[in-house]
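Morning!

This is the sequence you dropped in the shared folder:
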Amino acid sequence: MANFSFILGIIGNVISILMFAAPIKTFKRIMKKKSTEDFKGIPYITTLLSTCLWTFYGLLKPGGLLVVTVNGTGAIFHIIYVTLFLIYAPKPLKIQSMKLVAIINIAFLGAVIAITLLAVHGTTRLTLVGFLCAALNIGMYAAPLAATRTVIKMKSVEYMPFFLSFFQFLNGGVWTAYAVLVKDYFIGVPNGIGFILGTAQLILYFMYYKSSPTKSTEEKGSAHLMKREIQMKDVNGAHENEKNRNLHKGKSLPKPSLVRQYSVRLVKTLSNTPSSLGSHNVNDIEKGLKEAH
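The structure's back. Tokens below.
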């Protein structure tokens, strides 16, 4: 049974490391877009605290080497994740996340380690840290549920990474089995709850997976919008050109010639002149037209 528990511990280490590595894809996207978008920082902050405390628990527990190796690796991963999240988060979220890191990962963790080493002795140390680790491990498993509201509201699993949920499901199951064999309830209870929560997340994922927009769909939608905008610009440009042509046409109409202007004025003059002066005016008109030419 001891050999079997050791094998399960090795399997648990591998699955846990894969689980800790699952957000790499998410942070590649964050770095590429230089924005955290709608991703939540709380899962990475709480997991960092959990892995640090579990590493401390493994150091206190006799034969806790497997606990130290897996959680020490997880702590390194999450230091990197939290740092990247703080770099690319918008200012209000960045300030809020920095406060959480200062309170949870620095002040609280430091206080627990100091109190445990200075004020608590014997097996009470392991019990105190074990209870804290169990509570935080449940929080680590429950943290991704913060994204479920977004998933249900948007009917999309875009912001709930599949591999994180999947490896939490596997991790919870394997470490629960390990805890039963070594009779460590501090490991068994939170991982049993994590197994249930991981199952719930996977069910939610498959409920909304088909309704989530794929990359090709988004690209097609963007292409359609761009095409429509170009068409609208072409239509507006055609109207503007037509308007300009009409305006130019109006401005370029030929002005009445001097002969015609003079003729009109003479006709008006004749219409207002007595008929007895008609022959004299006719001569004047002929003379005026010749001068105009």
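Headline: The mean pLDDT is 77.

More detail when I'm at my desk.
O.
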